[in-house]
Known about the structure:
It is built from 13 helices and 17 strands. By secondary structure, it is an alpha/beta fold. It has a single domain, classed as Alkaline Phosphatase, subunit A (3-Layer(aba) Sandwich). The strands form 5 sheets. Strands 1, 4, 5, 6, 7, 8, 11, 12 and 15 form a 9-stranded mixed sheet that branches. It has a two-stranded antiparallel ribbon with strand order 2-3. The N and C termini lie far apart (59 Å).
Amino acid sequence: MDSLNFSRRQMLKSSACGFGYMALAGLSAEAALKSASPLASKEPHFAPRAKRVIFLFMHGGPSHVDTFDYKPRLNKEDGQRLPFKAAKNIEKSSQENLRLMKSPWKFKQRGESGLWISELFDNVAEHADDLCVINSMHTNGQSHGQAVMKLHTGSDSLVRPSVGSWMVYGLGTENNNLPGFISICPSRGHGGVRNYGSAFLPAVFQGTAIGDADTKAKEAQIKFLANNSTSALEQRKQLSLLQAMNERHLKEVKVDNEIEGVINSYELAFRMQSEVPTLMDLSAETKEMHALYGIDDKTTENFGRQCLMARRFAEAGVRYIEVALGNNRWDQHSGLKSGHERNSQQVDKPIAGLLADLKQRGLLEDTLVVWGGEFGRTPIAQGKNGRDHNPQGYTMWLAGAGVKKGHVHGATDEYGYYATRDKVHIHDLHATLLHLMGMDHKRLTYRYAGRDFRLTDVYGEVVHEIMTS
């Protein structure tokens, strides 16, 4: 062969028995697959501060005045009547009483930043200097169903795509063998599958559920992922035949989002079989790592497993991951002390472990961790020892990529009832999360039923004050 005409392709094909050429062919096929897939990684609108989100959902509404929003005056005036008008939407029993109830837990200033955090979250408090606490959240919907849907989809009454679906639609995924959006042990009520659904977005952008809130994390699986009765080669042949039939139908009808979604979902499901089981196998982690997340303790094992899985999926390139303490666990209309203590004991150490693990791996630099429920709870008592729902003012916190460390944004009144300063609506939070991921919430739209839809509808302002400069 003339050496002057010896190309790189010819060299790879002829050398080492052609293995170099095989590798090139494999990489080319992989590149073609990624470019053809709707889940392929996409360019953001502008430089992102975060690459992925882990949302720690506390279903039921944890009490902000007992966790991250210290109210000395509430403690001082315990048992006295609320000195201003209560919201009309609280239950009648609370409306007739209006008796202030102090927090049963002590607060301390934590870290160099001096954030006030109660003893319910002593382990998370060790990371106070990494937290960005928003004490001025407010939302729509007094009921769980309304508020949970608002938190997850931006709408409290209509079927709309979830936050994770919007993010994957806008950015794709970093790993072509995994879903872009995973929900670990999600709640079955108060929206259920809608909270990780794609609504009118193509089906490939919906979240993939691993178990549910009624399933122990140790036993949680993705439904129908494994096929032990048919070999991988036979499955590939069956899938190729089915996909060919779907493609032929698609050519005949020209446009069919459902068929396109099915085609992409089938291919993704086939590829997931090789990667997901390995990621969900926590036995590969060290004993020290299990201890960090509390997996070696009966109380914290379940949520610890969820948090460790979240880290593994984040590290593998999943764009949006939700971890839930579900089934309305934080809804203490009575028995506040015993209920909130039980819940915090389950999640405090695992969450602290997740933050520590992400930080030591360098993942916290481009991972955004979000903590919170659908609303907070009132500073007035419900019955003898409970608190009612409070969407008028509550707390959520963020940590990691792009947000200020050891920072408190906004405030509720002196009792913790209404958000009063630098208020942040749930639409504002959604706009801010998208912004941190490099997307303009006003530009991230999808044409459906004759109009352009977006996560924030016609609302939402980015909260630049919580971001690093």
